[in-house]
């Protein structure tokens, strides 16, 4: 419980890393399909996100979890150090194309930006959604 609270605080400050993201994905996968999780989030159930989009995203999350197993601890703690040679190594180690590793890193950076924007909206989902023109940036 204490770990979850600490992660929540770091997440809201935009101070999370790939280890935190991995743990978040693990917790989400235990809760059920992404479409079911989205229904539980206040404000998100009214968005009527296409099931296909959520299924694609769920597939990406599974792949990204596998890819993260090929990162070093240092890379997971500080993803900013992952350069093209590290992407190559991670790609070979995980058996995934380099573009998927880059997409994971891009999504991580977008998530950090999104958290900061959400924080700027003072937790108001409608203000937050206006910044995205009513669409969530879900890497797909």
Provide a descriptive summary of the structure in words.
The protein is mainly alpha-helical. The chain has one domain (2-131): Signal recognition particle, SRP54 subunit, M-domain (434 Repressor (Amino-terminal Domain)). It has helices at residues 2-13, 18-31, 34-40, 51-68, 73-77, 84-94, 98-120, 125-131. α2 (18-31) packs across α4 (51-68). The termini are far apart. 12% of the residues are buried. The model has no long low-confidence stretch (mean pLDDT 78).
β-sheet strand percentage: under 5%
Low-confidence stretches: none
Indicate the CATH architecture: Orthogonal Bundle
Q: How much helix is in the residues?
A: 55-70%
Question: Short summary of the structure?
Answer:
This protein has eight helices and no strands. It has helices at residues 2-13, 18-31, 34-40, 51-68, 73-77, 84-94, 98-120, 125-131.
Task: Provide key terms for this protein.
434 Repressor (Amino-terminal Domain), 140 residues, 69% helix, mainly alpha, globular
What's the arrangement of secondary structure elements?
Layout: H1 2-13, H2 18-31, H3 34-40, H4 51-68, H5 73-77, H6 84-94, H7 98-120, H8 125-131
Helix pairs in contact: 2-4, 6-7
């Amino acid at each position: 419980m204490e770990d979850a609270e600490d992660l929540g605080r770091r997440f809201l400050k935009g101070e999370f890393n790939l280890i935190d993201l991995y743990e978040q994905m693990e917790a989400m996968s235990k809760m059920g399909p992404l479409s079911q999780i989205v229904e539980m989030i206040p404000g998100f159930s009214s968005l009527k996100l296409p099931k296909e989009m959520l299924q694609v995203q769920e597939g990406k999350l599974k792949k990204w979890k596998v890819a993260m197993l090929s990162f070093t601890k240092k890379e997971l703690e500080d993803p900013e150090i992952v350069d093209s040679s590290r992407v190559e190594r991670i790609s070979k180690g995980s058996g995934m194309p380099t573009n998927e590793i880059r997409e994971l890193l891009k999504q991580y950076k977008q998530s950090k930006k999104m958290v900061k924007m959400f924080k700027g909206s003072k937790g108001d989902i409608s203000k937050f959604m206006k910044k995205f023109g009513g669409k969530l940036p879900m890497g797909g």
